[in-house]
Amino acid sequence: MKKITAFLFFLGLLLPNLGCDPIEKEYTTWNVYGGSKENIRYSNLREIDTSNVIHLEKFWEFRTQDHDQYTQIQVNPIIIDKVLFGVSPKLKLFALDAATGLQKWLFDPYEVAPHEIQGAGYFSMNVCRGVTYYSDPNSKRIFYAAGSNLFCIDATTGLPISSFGEKGRLDLHNDLDRDASQLYIAMTSPGIIYKDLIIIGSRVNEGAVAAPGYIRAYDVHTGALRWKFHTIPKPGEEGYESWEDKEAWRNVGGANAWAGFSLDEKRGIVYAPIGSASYDFYGGKRKGDNLFANSILALDAATGNRIWHFQTVHHDVWDRDLPTAPALVTIKRNGREIDALAQPTKGGLVFLFDRTNGKALFPIEEIEVPTVSELKGEKLAPTQPWLVGIAPFARQAFTEKEINPLISKEEQALIKEKLKSLSTGFTFNPPSKRGTVIFPGYDGGAEWGGPAYDPETHLLYINSNEMPWILTMVEQQKKMDKTETNFMAGKRIYQNNCMACHGTNKKGSGNHPSLEGVEKKYSQASFNALIKSGRRMMPAFPQIQEADLEALASYILGLDDKKELLFKGATEKSNPYWDLPYTSTGYHKFLTEDGYPAIAPPWGTLNAINLNTGKIVWKVPIGETKEFLEKGIHTGTENYGGPIVTAGGLVFLAATKDGMFRAFNKKSGKLIWETKLPYPGFATPSTYTIDGKQYIVIACGGGKLGTPSGDVYVSFALK
Ligand code: HEC
Predict the structure, then answer these.
(1) Cα 203 to Cα 180: distance, rounded to the nearest angstrom
(2) What is the pLDDT of residue 124?
(3) What is the distance, to the nearest Å, from the Cα of residue 336 to the centroid of all Cα atoms in its chain?
(4) pLDDT for 47-84, tens place per residue?
(5) How far apart are CA 280 and CA 178, in angstroms?
(6) I need a surface site. Which of 83, 330, 581, 590 has the fewest CB within 10 A?
(7) What's the CA-to-centroid distance between 539 and ligand 1, angstroms?
């Protein structure tokens, strides 16, 4: 392998005049989440190219047969030695013959997980975006997470490797320097391998009761902890002073690397995109800049020591997590090559740094932002970083001029009135009680699909959502006097803990289901179990006590026998940091009566950005809305899952709500090929080659944006 790399490199040196830059690595495999540890979703394969892609056809499909009405598949599969590793909607890990799609083995985490452990998300089915492969002469291993378990599975047999951790499993609640046994923790994106370490992040609760998002590195053989990095620093550590409250580090959570990592293997630097601190939308109990939340962290991969960091949002109150690991790129400046890092954001920007030292390659200014909040106790940051010289890839404000022109004049007038009543027009307008427009939205700009980067042309490809959301803050409900009934208490507990997702009056919001009619599905016991353990994107609430659960059930399940009982008054929140004065009314998109975005299209775009110049080379809408397509209007749609780019001159992207899979000319953005998937592919494709044949595979799990859930992995090839 090394020899080939060296040869290609040498060849590259000889071929500087062929119109594109030589690249050092092969990029012919897809054995890492995101294609390579550089996380650039690039493949040097070129059998499928701009001239023949129109003949691309379905080659095999694999059905996992375990989906239900809520499931999704967000997996970017990996392929090693002709075997494809993927994960099913219910988090079963499987190995397929990558040439035929036939199953070799299946691992079901619920069969081996010890049943005596309950609660705190141990068994909850998180969403899984991929798995990690490790090999040495003695073993081949797959690491992946189900619930709060990190499993180490033999890649040849599908059986847990019992010498790792506790019978092949690590409990993610451990090693967090506080009792996190009752806190929700899971892992959506896979870890990354450096030498004999697996470096992992986590998904934690976005509410006040959240585990800290420490980054941890474990020995791949034994599961022993080798290092951890405190993303919420302890006294004496760099960044500690960015928290005004000296005890915050013990009590506040979040600041987690949920979107995975990229690795500069040669230099031994791991890069982590960090999410916001909890609670997302109110920071009165976490005053200060909150390092290392919302930061790009460059750590020594061997020790976990910080090399540099950059905070993209100070004291975040908008849920501006960094949603993807940065792409490790090389740019050209004044005839010189610079190893750089491109970090797309939910806000629609691409930050570009020298990856060795964190020096900004496009100027970043600290601009003044509004500092007056209606929310008592809040203290907003006076300035925020702003990029100069590199164009945003998403619109930056929703104002009157941008109202959706596809709706009637009357409705446009209504939207205009509503806009006037809201706080809008600037990304850093504070959360408010009258409502603040979050645009670009909670899901970007960029999301977890991440960017693709072409090392030959220095173009970065990034898909974007352009959906305005409305954030409305309300005061938390206070416990009433002795006359409070179970039903009233349940409503209060609901408003304080559940409304932020399930919306006012249990009607649902964003991707969170309505709870109307759930009494038909749940008994008090199964309801309690769900709340204690969570499920997929619903976090666990192990801290909610019995009496509160009973009250919640009387409100949500309408248990008549409990309704009129006086509330027994179980919970004052035990930790004052968890008892916040405000909560939000849910994740609400700003929509028209017919459910279209209130903003003018495009609602989803694919962008090609030249990283040498900072210029957008092309931008196309992605995804069609049937009604408007009939009138010749290309609206674009919301989208989840990323693009890949190939040496065959193509960018492949599924991701859109219309369930299509598309190939674009990477130079021009022209659509060359498209096909309908069995279910929308809210995932990033992978490409690989076996015996000279190139395959493109995409997981089609649907289940987002109101589309049906599915269970299919489809592979395409030239017949
Ligand atoms: C962070 C967002 C979030 C919060 C907070 C949240 N939920 Fe959920 N909830 C979800 C999601 C997402 C689902 C769908 C889960 C799935 O995929 O199975 C869900 C599902 C449910 C369901 C099952 C619905 C069904 O049709 O089967 C119930 C019941 C429920 N939640 C109750 C609650 C209660 C009670 C609370 C507060 C204690 C709460 N949730 C807090 C996101 C949330």
Answers:
(1) 13
(2) 59
(3) 34
(4) 999 999 999 999 999 999 999 988 999 999 999 999 99
(5) 21
(6) 581
(7) 8
Per the listing, tokens 């595979």 go with 697
Task: Locate 578 and state its tokens.
Answer: 């968890």
From the CB of residue 522, how many other CB atoms can be counted at a distance below 10 Å? 17
Q: Cα(348)–Cα(343) distance, rounded to whole angstroms? A: 10
Other residues' Cβ atoms within 10 Å of the Cβ of residue 94:
20
Distance 351 CA to ligand 1 centre (A): 35
Kindly give the number of the ligand 1 atom that is closest to the alpha carbon of 552: 35
Closest ligand 1 atom number to CA of residue 205: 1
Q: Which tokens is 350 given?
A: 């691409």
Task: Identify which of 90, 48, 6 has the alpha carbon closest to the alpha carbon of residue 673.
Answer: 48
Tokens (6 digits) for 244: 């005004």
Cis ω for the linkage preceding 137 (within 30 of 0): no
pLDDT in tens, 515-549: 999 999 999 989 998 898 888 788 888 788 888 99
Query: Does the beta carbon of 539 sit less than 6 angstroms from any atom of ligand 1?
Result: yes
Q: How far is the CA of 515 from the centre of ligand 1 (A)?
A: 8
Instruction: Looking at the CA of residue 518, tell me the nearest atom of ligand 1.
Output: 26
d(CA 407, CA 638): 18
Average per-residue pLDDT for the chain = 93
Among 674, 680, 675, 719, CA closest to 699:
680
Q: Which of 397, 464, 434 is nearest to 603 (CA)?
A: 464
The pLDDT tens digits for 255-307 are 999 999 999 999 999 999 999 999 999 999 999 999 999 999 999 999 999 99
- Residue of 346, 358, 274, 350 whose CA lies nearest to 310: 358
Nearest of 505, 501, 562, 500 to residue 528 by alpha carbon: 562
* CA of residue 229 relative to chain centroid, distance: 20
176-209 pLDDT tens trace: 999 998 888 999 999 999 999 999 999 999 888 9
What's at 366, amino acid-wise? Answer: E
